[in-house]
Request: fold
Amino acid sequence: MKRVAALVAALALIGVTTWLVWPSDPEVRGQDQKITVVDGPADDQRVELDATFFPPPGGGKAPAVLIAHGFGGSKQSVRQQAIQVAQDGYAVLTWSARGFGRSTGEIALNSPDYEVKDVKQLINWLAKRPEVQLDASGDPRVGIAGGSYGGAIALMTAAYDQRVDAIVPQITWSDLADALFPNAAATTAGQGPETGVFKRMWAGIFFGQGVSLDSFALLGQQQESAPPTAEQARCGRFMPAICDIYQQVAKDGKATPEAVALLRKSSPITVAGQIKAPTLLLQGQRDSLFPLSHADANAKAIAAAGTPVSLGWFDGGHDGGNGEADWLFEQSSAWFARYLKGDGSAQTAPPVSAFTVTRDGGRDPGTRQRIRLHPEAASYPGLAGTGTTTVELSGPEQNVVNPPGGAPASISTVPGVGALLGGQGTGGVSIDMPGQSAAFESPPLTAPLQLTGSSTAKVKVSGKGEATLFAKVYDVADSVQPPSLPAGLVAPIRVTIPEGAGSVEATITLPAVDYQFAVGHRLRLVVTTTDMGFATPAEPATYQVSLASPTLTVPTVRTLAAPPTGVAWWVWAMPLTAVVIAAALLATGRTSAGGPAGARLRRRAVPASEGIARPDDSPAIVPDAVPVSAVDGQPHDAPALTLNGQAHDTPVLSPNGQADKASVLSPNGQADKASVLRPNGQAHDVPASIAHGESGEAPAAGLAGARGAPSEQGGEPVPLEISGLTKAYRNGELAVDGLSFRVEQGQVLGLLGPNGAGKTTTMRMMMGLIRPDSGEIRIFGDRVTPGAPVLSRLGSFVEGPGFLPHLSGRDNIELYWAATGRPAADAHFDEALEIADLGKALERAVRTYSQGMRQRLAIAQAMLGLPDLLVLDEPTNGLDPPQIREMREVLKRYARDGRTVIVSSHMLAEVEQTCSHVVVMHHGRLVSAGPVSRLLTPAAGANGQGPRLEDVFLDLIGDKS
Reply:
């Protein structure tokens, strides 16, 4: 122990020293500035911008980055981001745009005559700073980043000022008119904002007083501003002309030519071809204000001029989501490093891929944190994808009604609510009002379908006049779960039915999403007459909606692949440190145990003199009976096997507390009956075991107390003996109550019981993780205690494997084995990894694995060293049917090779096919035990076939519901 203490102290000293000398992030100090600019069509308006300048902390000259805030925010909204960018080696300038925070002036919606001129003068100001690197006199090396309103000013400024060298706009618009008046229907009459559907709720937030669209401000930051005037209370701090136009369209619910012209003037799409600065567009997948189609339009227009463009679709947006702040910073940092600092060269591939998508990778079973994957593609495929899949839809023509006043309205997404609630929601619950919607559905999918882009459908609308409708595609799992609306997005359409025609056909471009539909799920196209987020006609009307084409065209991108992941130094350092400590502890423990390491042979019985003394040192002396406590607390006789092979009757407790007799297999192969009392008080006989000579079946699991049973057969100790095991919670409730059973070599035993039966507690005691209050567990004759050497013969997977997410699958299991201190040659890596069958994924980071892949890797880890006793908790969770079938055969083969397997599972059909024997627990007690085949034999159904294991199990635990 002295050596261990010295080693721990030395490692602690090394850790503290490293922490003290390790370089910390450089200190960044902001300098508040008041910068006066002149703008307006005639350059006659003076505005004072409230700004903060962060010099590069390392001194000298550095490229500059302008960071713009979102709508409703101020320079304070992006302060932490500015500090982080400055620590990356840049000079950073943040400011409150005109009309926001402490800056003067009025909001002009990023107009070229106002906000764009302001930012051009901020660039002039940077060119005069001695800390900023220049490309030429008056031309600083500068980039611009910003989200939403700030993203639009980055695009607009880059179009009007060629001094800008790189931009990173986030969750912003391409055409503000299209954003507020979308129309997803293409008809012979055309489409566009002039005929679009007014996005009423978002527009009200956008033009209202004191409500922010800035994702940071939404989470609680307050802008600094004076109390509003009467005019500002009417329409915020907007310019009066903008306020007047909004008042008109909000009243009528339709775009006017003046509104479209004003909004288009502030739209990057009108000038995107002039942008020469390399552009990284980061757009949120959860955004009903500026959906993915806006990033798509910007990308195409900028790339058409030959400018480098990359896109990232991340888990975030104006409707919430995770936000992925760290990943967004990594992408932005890499982009600016290439185009501002000059890291890398034009001949090498850019550090940011042309197209990246965030996808859900499930939850890490160790940390329980959501895993996000980032598959990449070398080129941007657009919203049409690299290929398409057609999905057949069916459904008759259906009547839909627009209610008077448009109420009550269906719900797809409540604008802004997802972000206000913390950003983790999916957009809320989607509801379609009865009588207002028509639905068309596909048959169940026979293969997974990964949608990436905008699907299209063709519908026919019959009726009179103008129809305002909303289309969406649901993921329908079954009749129990509510349908899921990907990202909560809906496509608004407005069609005009020609006079006398009676109907019109329209091709609908559905919202762009990245979403996987699972096998067996169905796609449901729904067309409704109302949506809470939009303005709808007040006049009641009835229409008929049908499919003009029976197919839904779904885009796919097969070129997306997960990128290789790097490993941070600390990911290696921490496990290696743990390995060193574990190896030292193992070495010390083996030495102090009284013999050199490796003195114990893995497959022989260990005499009592080599370890902890057994209560029954002489297996030749076996008592005729072992007292077993019944529910009423009175002892009952429980005779076990005697060496002459004669079986004695053993009481088995039923759920009502009454004991019945159960005999177990004697070594001569003669089986007796095991009576198990059903909940109704009637007993039925279950043969407790099988003869040794029966083909395909292993020796029986005894029902008697393990201490009364023989400890060895043919010189080999019994793999598992549990005797009188009891464990109570802190409140006194018994988790395990007097449990006794044993498992023989070659068996696959199913440990069954409802939630709370005590299965997991029992398995944790098997592994020495917790101590029993009374009773004992013996593995191959040795009593289990925390750290007992015999535990090296046990492999387990219980309650998640706890993999290190940044390491590859191979690295994880190799480090796990190294921590045991045993030779690598004993691990049998090849055999275990063959079971996992992960292929090339074995070299990927575990955080990119699906749940099924993690499950297979965990089982392979449990099988390292080919342990003689294997304990698995729910091993088939996350596996698909072919993998479940393969796992079933793996476990059977493993037991046939002379080892023993214990499986805890709720999948009783799998237990029935996999296990040779079962032990059933209820409320911590043993209810029944024996071979599966004999358990199912006694009760035959009316059709002459035996019951399912599920029926017998429910009967045993008293649950007939």
Notes: Residues 569-592 form the longest helix (24 residues). The two ends are 57 Å apart (CA to CA). The chain has 21 helices and 45 strands.
